[in-house]
Amino acid sequence: MVRPLREYTREGLLEIINALPLAILVIDRNRNILLANKVSLEFTNKDKEQLIGLIAGEAFSCINHERTPKGCGFSEDCSRCRFKEALEDTLSNRQPRFMIETTKVLKHKGTRILRFSTKPLKLAGRQVALLSIQDLTQERTHERVRLEKEKLATVLETTGGVCHELSQPLQVIMGYCEILSSKDNLDPETNNAVAAIYGEINKLARLAHDLTRITRYETKPYLRSKIIDIKKSTAGQT
Amino acid sequence: MSEKTILVVDDETTILNMFELAFTKKGYRIKTAASAEDALDILKKEEIHVMFLDLNLPEMNGIDLCRTIKKRMPMAILYALTGYASLFELSDCRDAGFDDYFKKPVSMADLMDAATTAFEKIARWKNG
What we know:
The complex is a heterodimer. Chain A has eight helices and eight strands, in the order E-H-E-E-H-H-H-H-E-E-E-H-H-E-E-H. Chain A is an alpha+beta fold. In chain A, the strands form two sheets. In chain A, strands 1, 2, 3, 4, 5 and 6 form a six-stranded mixed beta sheet that branches. Chain A has a two-stranded antiparallel sheet with strand order 7-8. Chain B is of the alpha/beta class. In chain B, 50% of the residues lie in helices and 20% in strands. Chain B has a five-stranded parallel beta sheet with strand order 2-1-3-4-5, with helices on both faces. The interface between A and B is medium-sized, with 24 and 21 residues.
C-alpha cells in the first residue's frame, strides 16, 4: 500500500528547508529545480534566480551536462548517475532513498564526494522530490590525512624499534669483523669470508639507516598484499 | 699510550667486550660500564676525558648522563652512540653537551678516528 504524500505549500516548505544545514532542493518530474534553500545556493554557487528552473545537472554544474547537446541525463555517464536513478525512482515510484554516497565531477568545484537522500512529497498539488545533499569531500580528505598520519606514526614506532634492536647485533658483528680483518696472519679464505660478512653487514646498516629516514607512508605490492616501500618512503631525504 | 683512557657505557655486555678488545688493540685503556650509575661511580674514582655513551641506558639515559658528566667535567669529550634517534633526540644530544654522535652500527675505524681527535683536542687544551 502506497502511503499518501504529505503536502506542503511553497512558503511552508521553504521555511523548513531554509532552517536546515544541508543543501536541499525540490525537484519536479523533469528534474528541474522548483525550490532551493540557502545552503544549496552556496553549494551550487548560483543565486536563487539563476537556480530555479534549471535541470539538476546544470544546477550542480555537472560536467556531463555539457557533454551532449541534450544536456543532463543524456551523456553516456548519465546512465550510471546515482542522482538521476534515485530521483527517477522517488518521482515515479514514490520511493525515498537514504544516505547514498556518490562521486561527481562539478565544473566549479572539481571532484566531490557527495552524500544525498531523496524523499517524495507534494508541493502545491504536484508530486515532487526533496533532494538533500551533503558535501563530504573535505571531511573525507581530513579523514584520509589523519589515517595517513596514524599509519606513519605506527610505521615510525615500528621502524624505530626494529632499528634499535638490529643496531646492537649489527654493531657487534661489524666490530668483530674489523678486529678480525686487522689480524696479519689471516689465511686468504678466512680473510675473504670476513670481508664478505662485513660487506653484508654494511648493506644491513644502510637499510637500518634508511628505516630511520622514513617521512611518509608509501607501499608497494608484494605477492597478494602490500609492503612499505622504503625507497619511496624515504625519497627526497638527505 | 697507556694514559689514554676511554670510558664506554652500554647496557649490552657483548658490545662492551667488543669495544674493549678493539680499543685495547689500538693501545687505549678501556673502562666499561653497563649503566649510568656504574659510569658515575667510575668517574668518581678516576678522571677520564673521552667517553662513548649509548643513549638507551636503563634508569638514567645517555642524554641525562652526558648532562651530569658535563656539569662536573666541562672539558670532557663525549660521543653519543645510538641505534635510533629522531631529529628531536639528536637536538637533545647537542643541548646535553655531546661533541658528536654515531649511529650504530658504526665502523670501529670511525670510532678510532673520533678517539684520536678527542685526545689531540685534550692535549691542545692541556698544553695550552
